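Before relying on records like the one below, remember that each one covers exactly one chain. Contacts with other chains, cofactors or solvent are not represented anywhere in the record.
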Amino acid sequence: MQISIAGYSFHGLVNVGAMNIFGYLETCRYRYHLQTADIWAGLMGRDANAYLQDEAIDRVVEAVRERGLTVVNYHADGCHVWEDDADKRKAHHELAERHIVAAEKLGARTVRIDTGGHDRHWSSQQFDTIVAQYTAWAKRAKDAGYRIGPETH
């Protein structure tokens, strides 16, 4: 049986500075004796511009490799597909693309990105935008050998 522990499970420890991506990977491998990791981007820091740099991702890739872990999921945060403001939507799309590149470098088998939207129901425009984006991402993921899907809150 293969199991993993969602990185978001440690968000409380992250918020008080008691856990980061490297502590999470150590915990998965050596405390819980797992062979898998479910990486929440928040484990890598608060500044996506810093932790999504090639050098930073390369350090995480090396840490995953050193511990013999498989990244079964990468949970991108802060990059909703839908935002009401078009400029925010564009910025979120650019951030999502950077997260996807990071997930691909990490060899993630699945990637989750939040759909966005603040209302209980999506308008036709919101729905069509979300579906079109996930359709494009799903093709990219299929071609690269992983899966990508939505998350909602």
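Residues 122 and 130 are 10 Å apart (CA to CA).
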